[in-house]
Here is the input.
Amino acid sequence: MSHVKAGGTAKNIHNNAGQRLGVKLFGGEKVKVGQIIVRQVGATKRGGEGTKMAANYSIHAAKDGIVNFSQRKVRTFTGKSVFRTEVTVK
Here is the structure.
């Protein structure tokens, strides 16, 4: 027989802070070099002209300008064409 009583269920283990993902600067707003425009998990939005994508898929401004969001056709791995949002700085 066991000499240790049965452990109860842990009810307070999922109190993690949110990751604060999402769009940080919207279309038409001014941006400076290095500012984060979008924080995301995976490449749901694509970086275009005037932007660079970091290793964690966050999109940063590569130059000063104004943020613009537009739709672009992208070919997936299977060959299917789908629309994705493209972020540019002009």
Summary: Residues 17 and 39 are 16 Å apart (CA to CA).
